[in-house]
Amino acid sequence: MGMRVSGSIRLQSGTAVPLRVRLLPLAALLAATVFQLFRPDPLHAGIAMAIVPVLAAFVLGPVWTAAIAGLALVVVAAPLPFSRRFDGDDIVVVVIVFATAVGISWIRQRFVAGLVTMLSVSEAAQQAILPNLPPRVGDFACAGLYHSAQRGAWIGGDLFDVRPSPFGTRLILGDVQGHGLDAVGTASMLLSVFHEAILDEEELGGIAWRLERRILDDAAHGYVPELFASVLLAEFAEDSDEVRLLSCGHPPPLLLRGERVEEVDLKPAPVLGLRLAAPVRPGESVAVPFGADETLLAFSDGLVEARDEDGNYYPLASHLQGLVVPSPRRLIEFVWDDASRFAARMDDDVSILAVTRTGRGRTAEAARPERAERPERPVRVIGGRR
User: Fold this and answer.
1) According to a count of CB atoms within 10 Å of the terminal CB, is the N or C end of the chain lower?
2) Would you tell me the crossing angle of helices 24-38 and 62-77 to the nearest 10 degrees?
3) What does the angle CA 236 – CA 143 – CA 306 come to, to the nearest 5 degrees?
4) Residue 274 has what pLDDT?
5) CB 288 within 8 Å of CB 209
6) DSSP class of 247
7) How far apart are CA 167 and CA 159, in angstroms?
8) How buried is residue 151: exposed, middle or buried, by Cβ count under 10 Å (0-12/13-18/19+)?
9) Among 262, 330, 342, which residue's Cα sits nearest to residue 304?
10) Cβ-based neighbour number of residue 166 at 10 Å
11) Per-residue pLDDT for 282 more than 60?
């Protein structure tokens, strides 16, 4: 996107045009001048010179484009000894072309400024939903990745975060129905409720109940559309070798234990906001063993529903079998690279979140993956360390 909004919201300029590109209009002006000297034909010389300000309009601002046009006009109107002079009508045509080039440059500059502002606001909105994860939360190393299904934007309806609470480190990964601003608004609301609920609710069921209550109440009063959301909640107690899990219509996570990959057998509650059953209440979470150096890998359904050219779903668990567990960041980079090569297309947002119990005093960096590193992909990787 050419920019990044972090911390306070700052609207930044787009990627600067390289110097060699900005010098092209001057090189073209020199070439057109030489052409006019050795081609004493006003028609062809005028066409060559008229191209110069038009070229400048696409790489320079209106001030510099006007300066280039002024120099070109001086060359056209000057009484050069080896070329025929342009008559008055020719000069008028050339002036009109040059003025048009300056106008094009002005319009382009305003369009680029508006695009930069729009993309900055879009990324700021997504930043509110996907805050930068710290590399460690308590005794846990974590990293997350988000890829929007909307080409050229970070915006979407996925959300995730890892936060400390009085009851242990807690995780949320959710997927709101749809894309665009409606989904973003609902996702932002859910994340703010999660941040508040983890401080008060002793059990994950209580957090899920508060999330659904907020969706239903806001939808009833028209604050958000009647969208539904799938959510995975997890709680890591620092004094226990377990992780408690609760799924509300969300795909169950994977547990990586050494070179083994285990699929957690969760009986999910209904997705939030559908009113298909009574709201989730405390006591409905499941405890699963989760020891040191083990990794929990959570993801949205956009990852496992990616298909290859034959229509086969991406087999995430089987592709991770035998893989030496890396740090969380390296793991999600490998998963994304592997899924990108497998899938013919991805039609839904993809979120991946990895959490490793490192133990006190240990670093977040674990063994490197045995498979070769792949080049970077155009996705947003949040937190973790290389």
Assistant:
1) C
2) 10
3) 105
4) 78
5) no
6) E
7) 22
8) exposed
9) 342
10) 9
11) no
152: burial class by Cβ within 10 Å (0-12, 13-18, 19+)? Answer: exposed
User: What is the CB-side half-sphere exposure of residue 108 using CA atoms within 13 A?
Assistant: 18
How far is Cα of residue 179 from the mean position of the Cα atoms in its chain? 13
| pLDDT, average across residues 125-151 | 79
Torsion angle of C-alpha atoms 130, 324, 376, 304, degrees rounded to 10: -60
Average model confidence (pLDDT) for the chain?
77
* Residue 55 DSSP label: H
Q: How far is CA 139 from CA 33, 165, 238, 279, 290, in A?
A: 70, 13, 7, 32, 13
Residue with tokens 């070329």: 83
Hey, how many other C-beta atoms are within 10 angstroms of the C-beta on 276? 10
Cα(207)–Cα(280) distance, rounded to whole angstroms?
A: 9
**DSSP tag of 104:** H
Q: Measured between alpha carbons, how far is residue 183 from residues 77, 122, 157, 217, 337 in Å?
A: 60, 13, 5, 16, 26
Report which residue type is found at 274.
Answer: L
What is the H or E stretch that residue 297 is in?
strand 295-299
Give 266-272 contacts, CB < 8 A, sequence gap 24+. 269/208, 271/228, 271/229, 271/230, 271/231, 272/190, 272/208, 272/211, 272/212, 272/215, 272/228, 272/229, 272/230, 272/231, 272/248
* 79 pLDDT tier (thresholds 50, 70, 90): low
What are the helix (H) ranges across the chain? 19-22, 24-38, 42-57, 62-77, 88-129, 180-197, 204-220, 301-304, 316-320, 328-342
Exposure string of 80-118, with b = 16+ CB inside 10 Å and e = fewer, is eeebeebeeebeeebeebbeebbebbbebbeeeeeebee
Does pTM top 0.70 for this prediction?
Answer: no
3-state helix, strand, coil in the chain (%, to 5): 40, 20, 40
CA–CA distances in Å: residue 298 to residues 62, 155, 263, 295, 319: 50, 20, 11, 10, 15
CB atoms near residue 7 (< 10 Å): 7
CA distance linking residue 193 with residue 51, whole number of Å: 58
Q: Stretch 8-25: mean pLDDT, rounded?
A: 55
